[in-house]
Amino acid sequence: MAKCCNSHAAKCCLLILASVVLFSSALVSVSHHNKVTRRAHRRPLLCLQSTTKSGANHQSTASSSSPQKSPESNFWTTVTQKNTTSSSSGIPAIHRLDRETGLLPPGAYHNIDIDDGRDVISPCLIAVGIHPPVTGHGGKGVWREGVENCQKLIDSGFNTFKVNPCYGKMLDNKRYVRNGRRRDPSSFAWEHMQQRTFQTDVRHQAETEFYQTLQQDTPSSVLRSCHFMVNLEVPSILSEESVTRGSDKEIAPVSFGNGWMVRESVSNALLRTKGECLDSVILEYRKNSPYHLDVLNTLFEMKQEGLIQSISTHNFPPSLLRSALGSGFNIHSNDVRGNLMNTYNLQSDGELGVLCNDHGSSRLVSAPLGGGLFTNQYCKIQERAQLSASSEKMFQTLLDSCPGMNWKRYRTIMDTLADISLKHQVSVESTALRWLLQINDGDSISVGTHLGMDFVEEEGGQPYSRQRNLRQVFTFSLEEDDMKRLYRVSGFTSEENMLSEMDTNREIDFENRALW
To answer: What is the pTM of this model?
Structure first.
């Protein structure tokens, strides 16, 4: 009887011990599952937090979510990591990024270095250039509609804006030919100055209406998360040849002085933007003006005073940019024109590219879509005669800025873009913009938009949806074969691309016995 009891007790002990072991292993399994789940769901939170930090933190967060460094290797974590990886160029590519709203992923914002260590808003790699409404369609009602669409862009993570110069608005008194005879250049020097003054006044008026309406309809906390850029003109110079006809005396060149004209221009810009300081000042290049370095010196003095956060230039030639950078001016970027038909300023091994790389500067690429010609609506237009009058004017402007280009070359580029876009299931404009970001890591692009104020941008009365195509840029990555195809049709050449082409085209000589 005692033996039976002892046997029964031993069995009970064994059962209890087995139950404890199974329960412990279950706890370990649940703990490991929760650990993996928390890691997978913590990544989006880290992405949201990192957008308020510097670009260096953006890169560290993005690299920490890379699948190569993660210990998990099961199916679920692999899928999550795949949707948060970046392309080989460093530009983020999140396949499940929300198509409409939400913050952009880390790496979609540029880092700005401030000498005194102040916190600044990191501008987006895609800046939005606002085209003012045409003459006769202005007013607060139109701008209110434009601001509503601008708020959609802000909700979609795009925080960098500027009002584009009004190059198309001209006075009617400028005539190069009068009475069948070509006028002497000196006779319309003053008229040319009047044209520039008129264009500047139109842009200043547009900036005033835009910022006034934006501040009325947008919370201040949202405005503090945005980065606004303001263009600034360089004073011109009047030489002996630039004297109006009939003048009885010559006008001597005006000395730069102590920079009061620049300070007055910055003060007026502060009044238009109604801010405590200017986020970014873009200094326009003016041909034959001797004041560029003097203006830069005054601007950097105002930067040290806390009135300006960053300073960029617009269309500075390499020689002038070299002088500015060599003088110690820390220029953030140089605004240049560039697209698939105009790649001269985009070459990484060109004079401008080498200069920017050596001094840590970057490029802000304007007109990336060729005035809207690299978009979906032009995919089906096979003949130039099918273009409307306005589109024909834009295309001719594009050709004038791209020597050696023609309609056949344009159609080849468009067909290639359409094919690659279909492959990645994105729009044509998203493909063109993604290519520009990937060819030179660190450069930004400025995309123009009328914000729905031209009554033509959105066909068929559809709601404004430009933000969707812009967000698509960060949902995919162009593969090496895609990049090479666009290199080939655009005529883009760089040292890296040339070496790649040489490696690809090099054939093995099987008749060479030295190889055997």
So the answer is: 0.74
